[in-house]
């Protein structure tokens, strides 16, 4: 089946035999034949990595709390409670900063293996992509909303492999596949925008780069998927879904009603 046919017809690629050879084929065939069990075995290391990231990031906060405990043990209950609360508050801030550093370190060995691909959800190519997003979501669903928008969130995404130019404003945490997203200079990403460099179609997992060129503006709650290119100084209207492989021309106002264009 060629690519044009597979775009028109559903293809249960996850039930087919792997087209690889050797050990790689054996692993993929096991994944596809025993999908539930394979997924549970596959996700267990991710859970361990996430627990380790959280534990390391929480260590400075625990050190601060134990140090405080040792220094105020002889004070009154009210004073001790205040200093415990104070150390917990500072500890939480330390946890945020630590997690922003720890997660990218664990992500670093994965980056070279996360590449654009089109194939089965249960494949060797999907494994590093899954791990990359699991680590991204660990920060996204814990503390990222607390520092968005700020230089700290941009720092985190850069550390996760996203290419970000100068003067960029990112007012959203709804980002997947950061290492496959390129944002050029002076781009503005509005609040609650969704950006992801992947999508599922006709039984396939497609991982493709997302490019936003210089000076573009993405409106509130817009959704950009893999394979999309937003041209220089283009505008994507709020709440618009930009479908895969869409190329928005330079200066185009995508999704803006013609009557409202100036």
Give an overview in words.
The longest helix has 37 residues, at 35-71. The protein has one domain: UDP N-Acetylglucosamine Acyltransferase, domain 1. With 262 residues, it is α/β, with parallel strands linked by helices. The protein is flat, with a radius of gyration of 22 Å. Residues 1-8 have low confidence and may be disordered. The protein has a five-stranded parallel β-sheet with strand order 2-4-9-12-15, covered by helices on one side. The chain has helices spanning 3-8, 22-33, 35-71, 77-107, 126-140, 151-159; strands at 117-119, 163-164, 169-170, 181-183, 188-189, 194-195, 198-201, 204-207, 210-212, 217-218, 223-224, 229-230, 235-236, 241-242, 247-248, 253-254. 42% of the residues lie in helices and 15% in strands. The N and C termini lie far apart (46 Å). It is built from six helices and 16 strands.
What is the helix content?
40-55%
Envelope shape: flat
CATH class: Mainly Beta
Task: Give the N-terminus to C-terminus distance in angstroms.
Answer: 46 Å
Question: How is this structure best summarized?
Answer:
The protein has helices spanning 3-8, 22-33, 35-71, 77-107, 126-140, 151-159, and strands at residues 117-119, 163-164, 169-170, 181-183, 188-189, 194-195, 198-201, 204-207, 210-212, 217-218, 223-224, 229-230, 235-236, 241-242, 247-248, 253-254.
